């Protein structure tokens, strides 16, 4: 089987690697001359609106997927004329836009921070007044890693949100003083089967995910799975999906969902019986989904800006090193390390050391 991937970043690279034992070959389309997936997948260097490249991809592949959610809808429509595409247009259309996304959550009875849309400076001020301060103003589209958003806690700061409005419509959300953030990775197959990984506590700095650790919280797990299950079925989603929540004293509030493999699930490569990458491929290939049970006590640290010396990373008991082969650059995710051990104490000690190494390499 040949799987096409729109986007050739680290997610595509880890998908391609997961495909090898399954006999799945991968072809990525990415405008960059040497995207990081090109080391392990065939690469078609072309922009996402290049009709010839898209037709070549659908001619070559049995099924096409993507490694980022902001793939232009027209590109997917073109590929879908002749090839199966998962996730489908509905998953992407709903989850690409923070307003349709949060509206969908609310309609499904999934609690969210209070939100209000705005398309003009007048509406923005009205929305801020109705939500109250502090609040978070977010671009409806193309925001990631905290980009395209501003926290407003004084009226004098509204100018900063006006800048966001100039670029795109926005939503205003109430600022949630959460205990911490949690995320759930789920997958749904073509036959509607669901699997869920353990919920993780996820720690961000400046909007960028720094580290995650799976938690054992049966009630929260059940709540998150119920919410994710409703969303997967409503979207008719096929493939993996990452769902991010704020944990508050009143339970979970949904922040956002991404219709793809997710950074909060990288630990599953070594820390779960079947990785999120393998389960995504199994789902889109029409294969049965795999067991998501943990293989030990796991945790995961992102490398932002530059990758530490692998000798230091691998000196940590139970550590696995992942270097995405990307040029160092401030704020860029360039690798990660996962630690898996047989006891919680050594996992926690490993995470502390990996976080020190990540901090020293931070740019
Ligand atoms: P997002 O791009 O929506 O995932 O936001 C990036 C990060 O900003 C989140 O992981 C949170 O740490 C923070 N954040 C986003 N929305 C809110 C909110 N309504 N209240 C508090 N913090 C938020």
Description:
A hairpin with a 2-residue loop joins strand 12 and strand 13. By secondary structure, this protein is an alpha+beta fold. Helix 1 (10-19) crosses helix 10 and helix 2 (51-60) crosses helix 3. The two termini are 40 Å apart. The radius of gyration is 20 Å and the shape is globular. It contains twelve helices and 18 strands. Strands 10, 11, 12, 13, 14, 15, 16, 17 and 18 form a nine-stranded antiparallel beta sheet that branches. Strands 3-2-1-4-5 form a five-stranded parallel beta sheet, with helices on both faces. A four-stranded antiparallel beta sheet has the order 6-9-7-8, with helices on both faces. Residues 113, 136, 143, 146, 173, 175-176, 181, 204, 207, 244, 255-256 line the site of adenosine monophosphate (AMP). The site of adenosine monophosphate (AMP) has 13 residues, from strand 15.
Describe this protein with a few key phrases.
alpha+beta, binds adenosine monophosphate
Average pLDDT over all residues = 95
Ranges where pLDDT stays below 50 over 5 or more residues in a row are: none
Helix/sheet category: alpha+beta
Shape: globular
Oligomer: single chain
Beta content comes to 25-35%
Present as ligands are: adenosine monophosphate
Task: For the record, give the distance between the C-alpha atoms at the N and C termini, rounded to a whole number.
Answer: 40 Å
Summed up, the helix count is 12
What is the helix fraction of residues, given as a range?
Answer: 25-40%
- Main sheet, how many strands, which sense, barrel? 9 strands, antiparallel
């Amino acid at each position: 089987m040949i799987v096409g991937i729109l986007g050739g970043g680290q997610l595509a690279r880890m998908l391609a690697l997961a495909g090898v034992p399954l006999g799945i070959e991968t072809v990525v389309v990415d405008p960059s001359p040497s995207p990081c997936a090109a080391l392990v997948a065939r690469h078609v260097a072309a922009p996402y609106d290049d009709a010839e490249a898209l037709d070549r991809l659908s001619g070559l592949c049995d099924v096409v997927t993507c490694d980022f959610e902001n793939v232009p809808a027209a590109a997917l429509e073109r590929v879908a004329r002749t090839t199966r595409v998962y996730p489908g247009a509905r998953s992407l259309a709903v989850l690409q836009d923070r307003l349709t996304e949060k509206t969908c959550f609310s309609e499904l009875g999934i609690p969210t921070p209070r939100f209000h849309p705005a398309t003009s400076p007048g509406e923005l001020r009205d929305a801020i007044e109705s939500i109250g301060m502090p609040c978070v103003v977010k671009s409806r589209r193309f925001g990631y890693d905290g980009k395209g958003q501003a926290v407003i806690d004084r009226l004098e700061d509204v100018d900063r949100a006006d800048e966001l409005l100039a670029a795109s419509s926005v939503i205003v959300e109430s600022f949630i003083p959460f205990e911490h953030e949690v995320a759930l990775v789920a997958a749904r197959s073509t036959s509607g089967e669901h699997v869920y990984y353990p919920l993780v506590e996820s720690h961000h700095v400046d909007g960028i995910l720094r580290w995650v650790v799976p938690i054992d919280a049966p009630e929260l797990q059940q709540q998150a799975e119920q919410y994710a299950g409703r969303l997967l079925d409503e979207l008719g989603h096929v493939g993996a999906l990452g769902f991010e929540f704020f944990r508050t004293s009143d339970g979970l509030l949904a922040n956002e969902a991404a219709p793809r493999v997710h950074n909060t699930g990288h630990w599953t490569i070594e820390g779960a019986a079947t990785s999120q990458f393998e389960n995504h491929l199994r789902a889109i290939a029409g294969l049965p989904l795999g067991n998501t049970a943990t293989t030990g006590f796991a945790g995961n640290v992102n490398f932002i800006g530059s990758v530490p010396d692998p000798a230091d990373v691998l000196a940590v008991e139970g550590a696995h090193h992942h270097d995405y082969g990307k040029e160092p650059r401030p704020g860029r995710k360039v690798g990660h390390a996962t630690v898996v051990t047989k006891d919680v104490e050594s996992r926690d000690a490993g995470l502390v050391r990996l976080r020190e190494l990540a901090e020293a390499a931070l740019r």
